[in-house]
Amino acid sequence: xxxxxxxKALKELGxxxxxxxFKKVVKAGHSGIAVGAIQEALSIPSSTLSHHISSLAxxxxxxxxRESRTLxxxxxxxxxxxxxxxxQDECCQDEH
Length: 96
Prior knowledge:
Layout (H helix, E strand, L loop, with lengths): L2 H11 L2 H13 L4 E2 H8 L3 H13 L3 E6 L2 E6 L1 H12 L8
Antiparallel strand pairs: 1-3, 2-3
Helix pairs in contact: 2-4
InterPro entries: ArsR-like_HTH, HTH_ArsR_DNA-bd_dom, Metal_resp_trans_reg, WH-like_DNA-bd_sf, WH_DNA-bd_sf
GO molecular function: DNA binding; DNA-binding transcription factor activity
Organism: Echinimonas agarilytica
């Protein structure tokens, strides 16, 4: 992961509402969570939720899939690990 990708992901996660959404999606695991369930749990207007989901998707932190009429959000656990790895990669290298 390069600096720009990490900065984009951290920027999107730096917004309290997006962080709440992302935590819900991560908690749901690999099967994901319906957008309606996120909206109900967090009491976010649908237009606002859509905006935040788009931001998370643009940072490749989540993906979406449609099953019939239900839209699901699924965490990109690989991207999450890449962000964590980026932050930890050089841990303690300058310690003497």
